[in-house]
Amino acid sequence: MLADKLLFEALQYSHVCKYACSEEVSELQDMGGPVEGGFSVAFDPLDGSSIVETNFTVGTIFGVWPGDKLTGVTGGDQVAAAMGIYGPRPLMFWLLKGFQELMSSCVLDEGKWQHVKETTEINEGKMFSPGNLRATFDNSEYSKLIDYYVKEKYTLRYTGGMVPDVNQIIVKEKGIFTNVTSPTAKPKLRLLFKVAPLGLLIENAGGFSSDGYKSVLDKTIVNLDDRTQVAYGSNLKERDHPLRKSPLRNIKTQ
């Protein structure tokens, strides 16, 4: 709640934000900015709050849309997105519309930001972060996918936090993150606050996102609380690549 309060104050102080909402305050809040030339922001103030007590890495997710609308829009309509990671070194991945590369910066001891690198490619790599594994109980295709990763000797890298799991894909430029649903394990990840902003970062880093049917950037946000399943990873271009035959292609929204 403290992170939520600080971020709302910062957005109001910016004087360019018209509306904002967060996972903690999911109703639109008027930030006083202009409609014309202004922006609306959706954010998750502290992703991974359930793992704070265990001292795992947590972070913040931002999505920025033009004007005064956060419904009736898609993830592809975003003009900017960012992901902050609060680990042994604080990092910020950010993207502005018109720039092709995903930028990353690190905050120094004196409070200044230092540019680290641009990420333009996410390759194949045997590293996986499987969220919502309880869905394997009654989603046979997800169960087959997990078996596939194990049999192919993929390395498990899963923290229980979406930010650190997606962060490692971007930093290591390889791997896959999945959070699949089933009839008894319903979707928990919100499209507006998490999935769409991170989808924009991943796709502009040279990767791909999917809800089982299409890119998450093509999904229309109908309600602020819309939820979805998602996978982030590389963009397979070779038609004969062995992963094109993997069970991932068969997973659909339950």
Overview of the structural elements:
The chain is an alpha+beta fold. Helices cover 20% and strands 34% of the residues. The chain has an eight-stranded mixed β-sheet, sandwiched between helices. Strands 11-10-12-17-14 form a five-stranded mixed β-sheet, with helices on both faces. The two termini are 33 Å apart.
The tally of strands reads 17
β-sheet strand percentage = 25-35%
Strand order in space, largest sheet: 2-1-3-4-6-7-8-9
Compute the separation of the termini in Å.
33 Å
Chain-averaged pLDDT: 90
Largest sheet: 8 strands, mixed
In terms of quaternary structure, the protein is single chain
Low-confidence stretches: 238-249
Please provide the ordered H/E string of secondary-structure elements: HEEEEEEEEEEHEHEEHEEEE
Structural class: alpha+beta
Helix content: 10-25%
Roughly how many Å is the radius of gyration?
A: 18 Å
Number of helices: 4
Outline type: globular
Q: How do you describe this structure in short?
A:
By secondary structure, the chain is α+β, with helices and mostly antiparallel strands.
What is the topology?
Elements: H1 2-14, E1 17-22, E2 29-30, E3 39-47, E4 58-66, E5 73-74, E6 80-86, E7 90-96, E8 102-107, E9 113-119, E10 123-131, H2 140-151, E11 155-156, H3 162-172, E12 174-179, E13 189-190, H4 191-204, E14 207-210, E15 220-221, E16 227-228, E17 230-234
